[in-house]
Amino acid sequence: MERVPVTKEGYETLKGELDKLKRKERPQNIKAIEAARAHGDLSENAEYAAAKDRQSFIEGRIGELEYKLAHADVIDTAKLPKGRIVFGSRVVLENTETGEEVEYQLVGPDESNIEKGRISISSPLGKVMIGKKPGEELKLKAPGGKRSYEIVKIL
Question: Euclidean distance between the first and final Cα of the chain, in Å?
């Protein structure tokens, strides 16, 4: 059984989504199925078909979230070393070609969100960052082409 690293915040987000699905979405969908059944012939009932499709999605997502939470390895980012990049580290990188600085946090695959500056440890950039220290240069092949960064600091 493979453990998947996740931050406390990421774990709580997954837990919150699971709770919402179980306590709100599932009961609402059950009521929608009951209401659609009351309309009669199920073979030509679009509301019933849509509610059953929604039920399938909800149950699948609940199973997926329960699996992810059961296999989560929650990492306390407050206790991380600051001398090298590890899971959960917040880092400032400088693009060596443009001079542009970017800030990222290295997170698990289920937490990544580039708009929020959270990149996955399994991404091309995430993979080359692990274990590196400030001042080191990162070279990688990304889907958009070759990139080069210098690690400015670890926050």
Answer: 32
- Single-letter amino acid code for the residue at 109: P
CA–CA–CA angle 97, 100, 105 (5° rounding): 115
Number of folded domains that form the chain: 2
Can you give the pLDDT at residue 36? 87
- Among the candidates 75, 100, 127, a domain finishes at 75
pTM (predicted TM-score): 0.80
- What is the β-pairing status of strands 137-142 and 118-120? unpaired
Instruction: Give yes or no for a contact between 108 and 121, defined as CB atoms under 8 angstroms apart.
Output: yes
Domain end point (choices 32, 50, 75) = 75
Residue for token pair 């599932």: 26
pLDDT in tens, 30-68: 999 998 888 877 777 888 989 999 999 999 999 999 999
- Percentage of residues in the chain having pLDDT higher than 90: 72
Entry field: residues in the chain:
155
Identity of the amino acid at 120: S
Assigned token pair, 24 = 């709100």
Angle subtended at Cα 23 by Cα 20 and Cα 27, rounded to the nearest 5 degrees = 115
